[in-house]
Amino acid sequence: MIKKAKSIIQFSKDKGLIHMFALNILIFFLHLLIQTVFITYLNPTDLGRVKIIESFLNIITLIIVFGLNTSILKLCSERIKDNLKLKYLGISIKVSLIIFIITYIASLVFNYYNLISPDIFIDNKITLIVIIALPIAMRSLISTYLKANQKIKVYTKIEFINKIINVILIVLLIINKNIEGYIFALIISNYSQLLIYGIIFRKNIKDIIEVKFNKNKIKKIIDISKHSIFANFLGLLMSSLDIILINYIIINKELIGYYAFAQIIISFIRILQLSINEVIAPNLINLNKNKIEFYNLFKKYKYSTYLLNTLITLFCYFIIPIFIKLVFKMKYLESINIFKILILGFYFWSILSPNGIALLATGNIKVNNQIYFTTIIINFILNIIFINKFGIIGAAYATSISYFISAILSTIISPKKIKKYFEIN
Questions:
Q1: What is the pTM of this model?
Q2: Number of neighbours of residue 22 by Cβ within 10 angstroms
Q3: Which is nearest to 400 in space by CA: 327, 350, 342?
Q4: Which of 31-40, 45-54, 233-242, 271-280 has the weakest average pLDDT?
Q5: 242 FRET partner, CA 20 to 30 A, in 5, 291, 307, 343?
């Protein structure tokens, strides 16, 4: 038992999991600080608005990134020359900038016709949200490049500095300017964080700028990203569809705040799994030509995930409601039942997660798309029915049931597709 524990610790060190885990523990506590400030200085209505803004920001960032981060992850994890990896990064950045310009023009049109939200406050912020999304998209591409090259220590050091800057600005500006301060803080902090990446990459900036569009390279990048953007968009919809539909269906914005509070806690709980995914993905891609090593890593990854998240789910289901009652008293009491349903959805998502990474590593992006697309349709239908019938808690039921269905589909389909990949290759 002790020998196995040592083996797992050594495995974690070798793959950079400890650095990534340490970073995400920091992120957890910094987010906890931010959410404490949110809860203290924002009313439930503005807290709900923050969650809606975050959902739109994630969608717009996804559009600007356009799945190019997956292309970088896939191509730069392969054993190719460093200058070729840098060219893939440079082309991806330039494509992303073109998409940003198009998206910004579209946001002006959407804002003019008030098409984003029934809430005028959110509708008027759409162009600012696009501006905030640009540096987040650029950081996504660059950080993926670092992780693909297994430069986890460099990545974690940069993100450590970035998160500190982000928290300081958000806390100070929310205390002084409330929700307007939050938006202003997002602009300053995200462009500051991009500047830090620019300083780290200062020796390569000239090479990136001078990279010319190459038809074959662009085709190679887009061939991967076009499937990935659809999968990522569906994945994002799975996590944001409830909030987006609530934005249009629920009139009482305070209720959205209660739901947002429960989702915020769930987002903390997901941090560990996401950190593991970020490290394991490039390693699985690097082993996708070696069946035995691939399966050895995948099995360790999968079963560790199942055990860890079973314990996390049980602990949180019983302890977090007590924590909410003790710390927040009556203010967020209505969030408890929502949280209990969403934590079950988290567990089903955690079962889905390893299979999704393995499918990506074996080039089965279309399979991920099919699983997500089927689940999204069910999710959308259930949300419409349940929100109208049960109110805000209906969205929690719909989300958790959708993840349950997705987990079943993934568990049935993924092993067959991965096995078939190794039979062919």
A1: 0.76
A2: 13
A3: 342
A4: 271-280
A5: 307
